[in-house]
Amino acid sequence: MNQTLIALLGTLGGVVVALVDGPRAVRVGAVAAGLVLAPAAASVGGYPAALVPLLAGIIAAVLATAAERLALRLRAVPGLDPLVPVVAPRHGLFGPRSIRTLGAALGVVGASWVSLNVEVGGVATARGAVFATGYLWLMGSLRLLRGRALEDLATGAAAVALAAATGWLLEAGPGALPEAAAAAGLAPAAAVTAGWLVGRHHRRATTAPAEDSTPPPTAAALPDAPAEAAPPPGAAATAPRPP
Amino acid sequence: MSALALALVWIGAGVLAAALLPRLRLRRAAGLAPLAAGLSALAATRSEAWPGPLASVGYGGHLELGRIGLGLIVAGGVALSVSLSLAPYLDGGEVLPACLVGAAVVVALSATVPLIWGLAFAVAVGALAVRWIGAAPGRGSLAAGRVAGLGAAALIGAATFLPSAGPGVATRTALAGGLLAGGISTLLGLLPVGGWAAGAVASIRGGDLAAWGLLLAPAVLLSAGTAIPDLPAGAHTPTANVLLCLGLASALFGSAMAAVAPPQERYGRVLLADLALAAAGLGSTHSAGRLGGLLIVLTHLAAAPLLLHPPRPGLARPRQLSWLALTGVPPTPSFWGRLLILEALAATSGSALAAGICAAGGLLAGALAGLTSAASAASAVDDAGQPAVATRLLAWLVPLCALGIGLAPAGIAGRIFGVDFAAGF
Prior knowledge:
The structure holds 2 protein chains of 2 kinds. By secondary structure, chain A is mostly helical.
């Protein structure tokens, strides 16, 4: 595939990873990252290599959905809602995604620099694949750095894992499929964790509304919690509840 | 037993303990899971010298647990078990993430491919972040997910560039070294991005913090000590210099903060400062620095199970003795560890030695402040309700082990980590 097209696809996927929000953010992000990284991996390793990010992204979405549905069927357990911001959101000057949008724009420059100046593997001509991989890694890191809820962190982790798997394939070639598959496996793990917690919390919300009206058990709320375990001001107790 | 099987044992122990113990109303027995998993490492297949995470330049690496990793997994598992047993409160959710961290540490300390090494640390950070955010939601725990997660991502990113990094200072080599140094220093809580660790020690309960302080951070330190000498010169020198400078700055800052921190945060600050000093020892690239780091790790494995938790009635005397082990006064184990690191810093430069001496002085002041506050707590709370006899015996075991290490540091550390202190490593 044309390297320019691979780079363009990578940009689109990176923007999706950077900006997607909501209860299905991890799934959408993982599938988008897998789809756009598959051509990049295929440029050095052919179809077997392309299957690594593609299957990892799809498996992440499927397993996250399954974990959420399974959690909905199980007994209610109090705990963490990955969709609720851990700390109260700050109102960005141009909206809640403004910093991420700016980061996505700057990430193009960073990924371009990497693709032009750093030779990855023996394929010096696969600049578009290196750009796509680097851009996805940067957008995953951006989601990690700007994360306010566990869903954000899981989305970032999934993107970083898929980018790392593709980067390793670009570096090592098709002979490194086992390591790349192991790295890509972090994406389903992150998605399953987020899906499980979402399902568990929704189960709790539908079956025990009175219980849900209280915040999750913080260290300070526990009967014999030590004084140092009190969460700092602005913690989840003040975080907005989901609609 | 292979390293992969050992990691599965850790996961299985954690899942079983998390699923069964709360139902059986045996939450207090959570320490049995890391104890069993840690001791099962004795049955693992091991090699005398772990080749390190950069060994497989030809890719297709395998897991190979070395003697040093085995020692940390066994000692860390026992220390984690004692820490959970001495925790004043357990909600039952601590043990699964702790065992997941243990499994990830097994993989990280037996990885021969940098990608798997970084990936294992990412899994460990993810498990801790989910647990910490759930247990104590706040800026401190969120920062652990954000910043430590970014550090793990940096290690994963470095993995792509490490295998073919050349001896010269090319763009690729510099990028590999920068990402590696950034990832290691972030996971160790060094300045300028180590605020997440300081926030964690202030807001996370000891039972949850133990997995980071007793397993993850030592594993980062030990594996970095093995990996850095194997780096090509173009990445080796900047990585070592970054660790040296950031380690010394963090040790100075951390030791000052330990001296003035409130009692409940003091031990965490001392731990951070000691880890930073050990990182500076690694950065010095001298053998003495790495050996000193091993002794520092061993000292905290012995002292942390008690000091990570807030004071309890009846345990004040053991706490005092544990603080004594951290003062750095001979013949405490921290003295030998810091002495070796200062020796390595002296061989590096005079200014590094001066900074190291200041940091050691600050750590002495911090430990003495902890000793004093433990003494005042002893007179204030000792007549209140006493914990069970078994808990008190276990609590006494902690300082006795810590002080005992100081009497034969080379022999005990050599026995645990399989390192010959006379020959260096």
